[in-house]
Structure formats: structure tokens, C-alpha cells
Write a structure and sequence with these properties.
Subunit structure: Homohexamer.
Number of domains: 1
Number of strands: 4
Protein name: Nucleoside diphosphate kinase
Strand content: 15-25%
Low-confidence stretches: none
CATH architecture: 2-Layer Sandwich
Pfam families: NDK
CATH topology: Alpha-Beta Plaits
Mean pLDDT: 95
Strand order of the largest sheet: 2-3-1-4
Largest sheet: 4 strands, antiparallel
Structural class: alpha+beta
Shape: globular
Distance between the termini: 15 Å
Bound molecules: ribavirin triphosphate
Function: Major role in the synthesis of nucleoside triphosphates other than ATP. The ATP gamma phosphate is transferred to the NDP beta phosphate via a ping-pong mechanism, using a phosphorylated active-site intermediate. This NDK is microtubule-associated.
Order of helices and strands: EHHEHHEHHEH
CATH class: Alpha Beta
EC number: 2.7.4.6
Number of helices: 7
Length: about 150
């Protein structure tokens, strides 16, 4: 199976009208959209998603931020999509992310950095299982022929 990553547009990105912009950047790069939903998440679910960060001082604020409004959960697929997705997103702190990246172009605050992307193939697998327990769409192979 081709590599997949989990991408989430956080509540600030949704509220600021950046859904189309984010999707467009991943589409134009040549990745395939395999899963997509807009949803509110419960506190316990946000805590589970960010469980690796539970000891961090910013954890409670991070969870509060993620549950503050709907998020867009997505699965994207393609060659090296995990690492390349992180490049498209830019550095965690938007003040350090390069112009041309999503965070570099649209954010200034680490606590409101618009988007999440899996940091490894293993995290992507876990995050996709957590967010899409119902599974994701299959594309017919003939539909791939005109896009790299
Ligand atoms: P993400 O998981 O959201 O893609 O972010 P990341 O891998 O680039 O960064 P990570 O270290 O995993 O942190 C997850 C999210 O926590 C918030 N954060 N706040 N000092 C702070 O206040 C602080 N540090 C991190 C950010 O929203 C970051 O994306």
C-alpha cells in the first residue's frame, strides 16, 4: 500500500476559512485525498490523540484548543507523504516556519498553528486508526492514471 499520513486542520484553520487552501496545497503537490470529515472531538479523544504530550506544560491548553470547534480530519496518500506533508506544513512554531509553508504563510502563534500532520509512518498508522475506525475510501486503480 502507498504511504499515508493523517492531517488535521485545527479549529483556528477551520474558523479562518483555510480548509480549501490546505486541501489545495496537498492536491496540487500530487497527493491523493483518501479520507475527509469535519467533526467536533471530545476532550478524552483529543487527550488520546496527543497522549505523547501529556506531561508537557501546554497539554491542557492544547486539548482545550482542539475541542474549541470543529476540525477537519484527513488521510492523504502518496510517495513520502509523511515527510513531505510535514514540509508543506512547516515548523511547529509559526515564527520559525518558512514562508511558502502553511504555518509560515498563515500563523504567528505556536498555540494556534492551523494544522497537524503525522510525524512518522508509525504515528500516521496509529492516528488514521484512531480517527477513521470506519475505514477510508478506495480509489479504483484506473483513476490514478492521469496524476502522479
Ligand atoms: P502537530 O502534532 O500539531 O503536527 O505539531 P508538531 O508535531 O509540529 O508539534 P508537537 O511538538 O507534537 O506539538 C503538538 C502541538 O502542541 C502545540 N504546542 N504548543 N510551547 C507551546 O505552547 C506548544 N508547543 C507545542 C502546537 O499546537 C503543536 O502543533
Amino acid at each position: 500500500m502507498a504511504e499515508q499520513t493523517f492531517i488535521m486542520i485545527k479549529p483556528d484553520g477551520v474558523q479562518r476559512g483555510l480548509i480549501g487552501e490546505v486541501i489545495s496545497r496537498f492536491e496540487k503537490k500530487g497527493f491523493y485525498l483518501k479520507g475527509l470529515k469535519l467533526q467536533n472531538v471530545e476532550k478524552s479523544f483529543a487527550e488520546q490523540h496527543y497522549s505523547d504530550l501529556s506531561s508537557k506544560p501546554f497539554f491542557a491548553g492544547l486539548v482545550e484548543y482542539i475541542v474549541s470547534g470543529p476540525v477537519v480530519a484527513m488521510v492523504w496518500e502518496g510517495k513520502s507523504v509523511v515527510a513531505t506533508g510535514r514540509k508543506i506544513i512547516g515548523a511547529t512554531n509559526p515564527l520559525a516556519s518558512e514562508p511558502g509553508t502553511i504555518r509560515g504563510d498563515f500563523a504567528v502563534d505556536i498555540g494556534r498553528n492551523v494544522i497537524h500532520g503525522s510525524d512518522s509512518v508509525e504515528s500516521a498508522r496509529k492516528e488514521i486508526a484512531l480517527w477513521f475506525p470506519e475505514g477510508i475510501a478506495e480509489w479504483r486503480s484506473s483513476q490514478h492514471n492521469w496524476i502522479y
